[in-house]
Amino acid sequence: MTISSTLWQWAWREGVAPQLSTAGLSALQDALEHDDSALIQGQNVQPPPLQIHEGDQVTAACAIGFAAWKGDYQGAASVAEVDVRFAEICRHADQRLAEPAGVRFFLTQYDSWSREELRRNLLAEVGLALTERTAKPAKKMASSIDQEIHVGRKIS
Q: Within a domain: residue 1?
């Protein structure tokens, strides 16, 4: 964790965001920008993840569930599918953070924000995640090219 980031940002940046697809992050960014009512707080998915609803289509979800629903499942997923994906992301976030229940730092903060705080705070983080994601392939490509040039010089 960097000194300038908070625990929720650390949990988001290091644990959650890396697991979300680019399509999911883009959908989340759009939802935040347009105050999409399908982005909810206080529960991970609507209808609630009860056995009676497990085959129903998702109508709303929290940030993690929303990114999975709109990104991984392209907006057509059952409650059970999104609920399972949400649990996987949370479990892997804890592993990535090497902190039991470390994802709680993000989830607790997320659920405590006002709608405006949610949109402002998370929009900045989603934008950062997307920017980093698009910048990294160029850096990797450049370093691969540099290695090829370097290797080529060694052989010559």
A: no
